[in-house]
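Ops channel
N.P.: pipeline sanity check, posting one input/output pair.
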């Protein structure tokens, strides 16, 4: 099936902030994604796409030019101010304007977003406060968290927020898939194998997709990472579209999906 310029059951190495604009209105059944948690320091663009790299390029160009020509310090300060003004609204990891696009492309608002603790409030304000959505806070409790001795609580919990259109969506599944928490260790093997630092438990992702879609429905992940959402959708007979700006992760995701196709194996009960 084709949605605008994109075929379903494909992974695309694109900037989701631009590519999502090319998806038709009300074209996907579910958005399931793990948004960037904070601003990357290397200018890679994973957090908010080309916009970040533009700020970096402009700032660096002004600094280099000023240093070479002896141009005043004021130019550098102006560039610095513009740089931080441009990204201050993105300090929590993403440009929240993309949420409008999420709502536009959903047939009815149905979104799962893995996020950091700091991102919970702005997401709640948008989906619950502005859009009037129902919500759930789902959690992954890690049985092997990284030890800490810095006076803080253990980082043993990750949050997945579910938002859905009040009255136009449902939650299916059963007593197993509808648990609000998932207890498992961090799968170090998968983290190393798929080279992604925040890979999520496949079984938990599959549970959410079972609860919120039917076979043949379209699941869209704009921040696909190493491809767990697409793998889960394929395992369950759903269609998917994945966007990922990092070419390394995009290649890993495609390889994971190709390996499933080659082996014909389902991995419903793996992490």
């Amino acid at each position: 099936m084709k949605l605008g310029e994109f075929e379903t059951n494909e992974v695309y190495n694109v900037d989701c902030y631009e590519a999502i604009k090319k998806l038709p209105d009300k074209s996907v059944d579910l958005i399931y994604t793990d948004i960037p948690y904070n601003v990357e320091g290397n200018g890679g663009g994973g957090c908010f796409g080309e916009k970040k790299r533009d700020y970096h390029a402009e700032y660096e160009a002004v600094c280099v030019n000023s240093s070479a020509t002896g141009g005043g310090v004021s130019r550098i300060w102006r560039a610095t101010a513009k740089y931080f003004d441009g990204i201050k609204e993105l300090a929590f990891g993403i440009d929240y304007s993309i949420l409008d696009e999420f709502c536009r492309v959903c047939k009815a608002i149905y979104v799962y977003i893995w996020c950091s603790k700091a991102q919970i409030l702005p997401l709640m304000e948008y989906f619950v406060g502005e859009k009037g959505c129902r919500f759930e806070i789902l959690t992954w409790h890690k049985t092997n968290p990284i030890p800490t001795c810095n006076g803080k609580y253990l980082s043993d919990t990750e949050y997945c927020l579910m938002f859905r259109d009040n009255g136009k969506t449902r939650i299916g599944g059963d007593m197993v898939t509808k648990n609000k928490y998932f207890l498992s260790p961090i799968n170090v093997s998968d983290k190393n194998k798929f080279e992604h630092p925040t890979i999520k438990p496949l079984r938990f992702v599959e549970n959410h997709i079972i609860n919120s879609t039917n076979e043949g429905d379209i699941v869209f992940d704009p921040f696909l990472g190493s491809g767990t959402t697409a793998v889960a959708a394929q395992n369950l007979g759903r269609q998917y579209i994945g966007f990922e700006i990092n070419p390394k992760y995009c290649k890993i995701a495609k390889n994971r999906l190709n390996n499933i196709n080659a082996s014909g194996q389902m991995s419903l009960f793996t992490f």
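N.P.: looks fine end to end. Strands lie at 2-3, 6-7, 10-12, 30-34, 110-115, 134-142, 157-164, 181-184, 218-221, 239-243.
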